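Journal club side-thread
Mid-discussion, someone asked how the predicted structure for our own chain would compare to the paper's figures. Pasting it here so we can look after the session.
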Amino acid sequence: MHTKDLAADKLLLDRYRQGDDRAFDDILRRYYEPIFRRAFSLLRNHEDAEEVAQDTFLRARRGLDKFRGDAAFSTWLYRIATNLAHNKHWYWWRRRRHAGVSLDAMVSPETDLTLADVLPDGAPNPGQEMVTQELVERVESAMEKISPAHREILTLRIVRDLSYEEIAALQDLSLGTVKSRIARAREALKQALGDDAG
């Protein structure tokens, strides 16, 4: 982000903190479209992206007192939007457990990783047409059992469908570190699924 953009953001935030409510309207006009585009890129659904964008600004308004300026204001907004999109993905995922799910079904709508890819060797044959609600619950349960760091990086890669480069930027990590952490997290998930089967 350019220095003049950072300065403009600081000016808007200062105005808002001094009681000028119109400053938040200016923030909304400045960032609504980029936040909507980010949400849409993650969710691939116009209505869901609209909802996430609106919720992002509601949360931002409520949380502006907590914004310390350690990162750019735009980065903070993008993090809120990304987290909300992630939550919406998990809501979608949990609802899927009430129906049979194909092993060829994608773990998220935008990734090429299928349920069969994360199942341990002793799991049902990937050619099988349908799996039970129990399998989806096992995947959810396994995600809860792995470390928060593993769960977070898998969520960024699989659920949010972020590229390795995007994850590296978001987490302030090197590309090599991101790749190795994702590989370890996938192994941890497979292990957790294997433990569930035992």
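Post-session note: DSSP finds nine helices and no strands in the chain.
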